[in-house]
# Entry
Amino acid sequence: MEPSAFWHRIETLAAWLLALIWAAPLLYAFWAAFHPPHYAVHFSLTAPLTLANFVEAWQTAPFARYFLNTILYTTTTTALQFVLCTLAAYSFACYDWKGRDIAFALILIQLMVMPDQLLVVNYQTMTALKLVDSIPAISLPYIASAFGVFLLRQNFKQVPIALAEAARVEGAGPLTILMKVYVPLSKSVYLAYGLVSVSWHWNNFLWPLVITNSVTTRPITVGLSIFGSPENGVNFAIVSAGTLMSVAPLLVGFLLFQRQFVQSFMRAGIK
Amino acid sequence: MQIEVRSLQKNYGRVKAVRDVSFDVAEGQLRVILGPSGCGKTTVLRLIAGLEPVSAGSIRIAGVDVTLLPPDRRNISMVFQSYALFPHLSVRENIIFGLKVRKVPGPEIEKRLERVIELLGLGQRLDAKPGELSGGMQQRVALGRAIIAEKPVTLMDEPLSNLDAKLRNTMRREICALQRRLGISMVYVTHDQVEAMTMADRILLMREGRIVQDDVPESFYERPANVFVARFIGTPPMNILPLCNGGGGAALAPDGPVLYPGLDGSRFKLGIRPENLRLADEGHPAVVTGKEYLGSDTFIACAINGHEAIVRTRGMSDLAPGVPIHLTWDSKTLCLFDAHTEMRIEDAPEAEPLP
Ligand SMILES: Nc1ncnc2c1ncn2[C@@H]1O[C@H](COP(=O)(O)OP(=O)(O)OP(=O)(O)O)[C@@H](O)[C@H]1O
Ligand SMILES: [Mg+2]
# Structure
């Protein structure tokens, strides 16, 4: 056998193995959710299929409210990120002002700070703002996203200056130029960034756990954990059913728009 | 005057891109700014457009001092070198972009669009994106966007430099025809002297941020201000030959015929266009050094007293390198330049006819 063909096989094998390890928890969740609780720890091909776990999960916890909270939190966060990051990136990419480079360096530093490190400080800020246990409180720490500013700035910088100048000669003001030239030309970046942001915040756990403590604010990740915590007695079948329900919207969305997502990621240059 | 530029200066840090430039553009005139790369042509245009602030000087458009006004209040439209078409918008949206931004009413937009489409022959491709069009079509869309605004002044920065030679000729004629038809005052930047000579009502030749000559095209050809202009205009350029002292005056060779009796030859240079040199049985002696056959013409390179000169002859030539020849010319076509300053001598005496 040729050495290159050999290595190719090894690579393929490794890729499959990695994919399997990656998918294992999800596959297990599927198994546990669709079978009676008894089969959660014991594999049998003849096990009967059932939807009872989903019904029970839905009835045990206020899932509908959790979903609503997650949707509110995720959409407001992403929408506010779009607005704020667009404006900041526009200023960094197209305007020359005193201290611009220092400000941008600070933003880059923020990229390197793990959000978890700021948990306590953020909590103090929210207390000061009297926002503890509210949906805006979950969003606020994230809306000035360094990643978003950086990504959009890089993209805006690639837009030829002549386009902005042409628009300027035609009578467009700064905001019109932004909305009619820069934003439409960065559509694929917005799509890719939006996807990253939505999936990240949909799955966000630690900060929402700390800042929320009532049903009306808790996102689904937090709700799920309370309901699966040991003091309630862990029923893996029901936890799995709950988990599947919570990731279903993302999963379905991704499967439907897979091709567009991958393409826009390629175009946006995030790999 | 449609545009009046006075003592314009522009510095980028220590680089003096434009130093003291003044000129006028008359109403309906096609004014070409010509010059080698880096001489400041684009900078002058951008200053007129208001895309850059001036370092000193003033600009008036249609009698209004616009020096401090933003581009959209200067009553100008502009065509960029790269066309600057919006890639995400269709041809139609590109052309009417400015009208929509300025909130021109819908029916008025349609009326103007129809006219522009007819003028430029863009009918079939209105819904295409710029990326799907050929270079020539993109150029037309850029022109369309400039003329639909119906501004009295249009600025163009090397609009043809991205096109191939054949298309360039066609578009050159189209732009000229359009400019005449609409009576626009146009400032057209190019580094191509052929474009300048064929299109311009008046040319401004720049070098290193300064004006070298501001004149009508014929004068550039017949009465170049200095050696630089003489060499810049014309293909092949004007022959510049140093003079020396012959017997009793300035001559091309110490033993050759005297051209300017009583003149100190060492202080002057002689200029003569290749097409004004003729092969003859008698005249000034020279030796063939090479030739270039172009089909309709042949450029014969020859040495006059060791200095190279090009002679333009019709059709083929069977002269081989090393063959001695004789050249004649019409004395009226000679230019005399100062050997030191390289400026043309305005009141030069007419040269003696060749024996
Ligand atoms: N934004 C800028 N910053 C610094 N220097 C500049 C800038 N724009 C132009 N220059 C300098 O100014 C001088 C004139 O430039 P300009 O672009 O006007 O030349 P040009 O005649 O248009 O040349 P080309 O034929 O290459 O387009 C050049 O030396 C150039 O390097
Ligand atoms: Mg230029």
Observations:
- The pocket of magnesium ion (ligand 2) is lined by residues B 41-42 (CB under 6 Å).
